[in-house]
Write a structure and sequence with these properties.
mainly alpha, 255 residues
């Protein structure tokens, strides 16, 4: 096409028709500009399409991870509630209050105090986006903000777990000195490769209930478990918000 106009221009010049020459020259320029604009538009459309595909893939990957994270958190919450409920039941038997009917009844409660579970969410895909600075791939600003707040929230959960784990260790030291884990493990229900005998000492773990320090240690442990559980509840709300936004964005992009 350009060669065609060039020949026309040359003929016009040879014939001394300068005004027509300029018209054809301007027409050629306009065609070139239009061609460039069309090429740019096509390129922009292709880039936008690639960006949309990349966003959709990221949405689906993170959605899958966060559904798994919710499932993991539900298990952690169940274990934390088990510790809280067992701690309260034990505290209802300390000091001058009535004791459990049998040592096995008490040992079951004692074992349930050691059910703390750390929260290890699947953050692989989100970590990749954060480390590469590609969180901006998501058009939804609210979603970006919530995803940015996820890691700090998990770090708070880790701190709460560490506090609970520390209190379990402190109570464990006390039981090692004043009780019998051999007796307690008789009712643990855990499948082991060996069968342990009962303690060779004349000891009843219910005697721990008469010790004020034991009461305080159980109370501290129960509070730590409750703090951990409260943070889990807060984290779950954030999880639900993120999952809802992810599902909304995925549906919007597929409609």
């Amino acid at each position: 096409m350009i060669k065609f106009f060039r020949k026309i221009r040359q003929n016009q010049l040879n014939q001394g028709k300068t005004s027509k020459y300029f018209k054809y020259a301007i027409g050629e320029i306009v065609l070139v500009v239009i061609g460039i604009l069309i090429a740019l538009q096509i390129n922009n459309w292709n880039e936008l399409r690639k960006s949309d595909i990349e966003e959709q893939t990221a949405l689906e990957n993170i959605h899958r991870d966060f559904l798994k994270n919710k499932s993991i958190l539900e298990n952690v919450k169940t274990n934390s509630l088990l510790i809280i409920n067992s701690g309260i039941q034990i505290l209802n038997h300390t000091g001058t209050k009535s004791k459990p009917n049998t040592e096995n009844d008490f040992n079951e409660l004692l074992n349930k105090l050691y059910n703390s579970m750390p929260y290890y969410p699947q953050n692989g895909f989100l970590d990749d986006l954060l480390s590469s600075g590609k969180l901006g791939i998501f058009k939804n600003i609210e979603l970006r903000n919530l995803l940015s707040s996820w890691k700090p929230e998990v770090e708070i959960l880790e701190e709460r777990f560490n506090s609970l784990d520390k209190n379990e260790d402190i109570l464990n030291v006390f039981i090692l000195e004043h009780g019998s884990w051999l007796n307690a493990d008789q009712v643990g229900g855990q499948v082991r490769n060996v069968v342990f005998p009962k303690s060779g000492f004349k000891i009843d773990n219910r005697d721990l209930l008469d010790n004020l320090l034991f009461e305080n240690l159980v109370e501290n442990l129960t509070i730590s478990a409750d703090n951990y559980f409260s943070t889990q509840h807060k984290t779950e709300k954030l999880l639900d918000e993120i999952i809802a936004l992810l599902e909304n964005e995925i549906k919007k992009n597929t409609d």
